[in-house]
């Protein structure tokens, strides 16, 4: 296997919520800019519900969508039926494009399966407790080492202040 980093990217409310009724329960323009910068040129892996909420392939990135049933007929989408299949496809795409990282971008079911495979978590902690129906798995401090936190106050296009932290998997 090539040395390609597997990174989960998520925005997570204090109470673990990441989504509500197929959408994010916030507007965070500053975080969307960071998300784009983190993922551009790298394969992105997502579940069908996340793809549906976005509504189209993310430009400038190879898109891999996981779905047990539905097929998405789009030239910019690689379909997979499982996370393992998606990660294999994303790795091939990374090797083809020279990317050194695969970005796993949701949703809740995909994060729950992928957290054990990830090398790094890029988490935007949304400073609010919110209602929702999709959540992020607990980040175990025995497994994950938090790096420096970047506090981001809410800009005019942001619903809430955030705290951005990169977690690296502890080795040994």
TrEMBL record:
Keyword set, alphabetical order: NADP, One-carbon metabolism, Oxidoreductase
Catalyses which reaction(s): (6S)-5,6,7,8-tetrahydrofolate + NADP(+) = 7,8-dihydrofolate + NADPH + H(+)
Associated pathway: Cofactor biosynthesis; tetrahydrofolate biosynthesis; 5,6,7,8-tetrahydrofolate from 7,8-dihydrofolate: step 1/1
Gene3D superfamilies for this protein: Dihydrofolate Reductase, subunit A (3.40.430.10)
Enzyme Commission number(s): 1.5.1.3
Broad class of enzyme this protein falls into: oxidoreductase
Domain of life assignment: Bacteria
Matches recorded under Pfam families: DHFR_1
Record-stated family: Belongs to the dihydrofolate reductase family.
Function: Key enzyme in folate metabolism. Catalyzes an essential reaction for de novo glycine and purine synthesis, and for DNA precursor synthesis.
Protein name: Dihydrofolate reductase
